[in-house]
């Protein structure tokens, strides 16, 4: 298979190390990966703010960049969910539909497509998982705790393969961090309070690191972690799964 590596704009600008870890991890698993250099924003910020009519160029460019690949993989649940649910093209609707069906978040790809059983990774730290809303309720990467249904978690399955890693249990494992894209600007006070509550839950339960499938959530939490001098670090799940020390 050939995989097109989709790196969202904010990951490229602020967390390139997570993008590199994603590439290296896929290569370790013998996946043929290519990075289309002309890719830009997928259009999610405009669409979420009510301006989806301004995303035509983003959509058309995404189709041009990624049409040739067997799969498209990204280290961002929110951007993947946007592509899966909103990518469209007036010029080539069939191609856009095909791309929507073969776009995967990294954890989803590792578990559902590659069926990874061994990662040969090591990360000897206590780690708490932040379940991003897009990953949990959009991509169904884990079972929502409010449902009376058998539990499962794709991130937990992969993290349990990492030598030395200890997962900490949280009091409220599915709470939103409060980021919500432009929500953190429009409702700043509510957003900050939700973020502080998330951080406090990890502190109470002894986490050294907070990880997630969404760097947008981690960026929000990282600001609170650093401002409050907690000593806890935020790290994308790709960096942990790719770690060897």
Automatic annotation (TrEMBL):
GO terms for molecular function: oxidoreductase activity. InterPro entries: Cys_rich_dom. Pfam families: CCG (PF02754). It comes from the Bacteria. Residues 3-83, 127-221 form the Cysteine-rich domain. GO terms for cellular component: cytosol. This is (Fe-S)-binding protein.
